[in-house]
Amino acid sequence: WSPAGDWIVFVAPVQSARRLWRMRPDGSARAPIGRGAREETNPAISPDGRFVAYVAAEKAFRRQLYLRRFDGSGERILFADGDGDFPVW
Question: Could you say which DSSP state residue 57 is in?
């Protein structure tokens, strides 16, 4: 849930991988968050609701932390020197 309670961020399968999605609590406005080029899991919304931290896997058994704006833009890696799981703000 977003801090204001107006969005839910979740992961759903798309073709052969899982991607980040968002929707309103009533199920409306469902949309992907960004284009996603890798397996995405474990989203965590920032306290101000502007960003989503998540875990992405480009290679099997490698999990790296990424950050993306809530609108889907501005993706960047946060932790590339090792594996990470379950981001928490």
Answer: E
Q: Rounded to 5 degrees, what are φ and ψ at 37?
A: -115, 10
Side-chain-side CA neighbours of residue 31 (13 Å): 8
The tens place of each residue's pLDDT in the chain, 89 residues long, gives: 999 999 999 999 888 889 999 999 999 999 999 987 788 999 999 999 999 999 987 666 778 899 999 999 999 988 777 778 888 88
Which among 31, 45, 41, 38 has a CA at the least distance from the CA of 16? 38
CA-CA distance, 7 to 56, in Å (whole number)? Answer: 21
Please tell me the distance from the alpha carbon of residue 65 to that of residue 85, in angstroms, as a whole number. 7
Q: Could you give the CA distance from residue 65 to residue 53 in angstroms, rounded to a whole number?
A: 7
Q: Copy the structure tokens of residue 45.
A: 């919304």
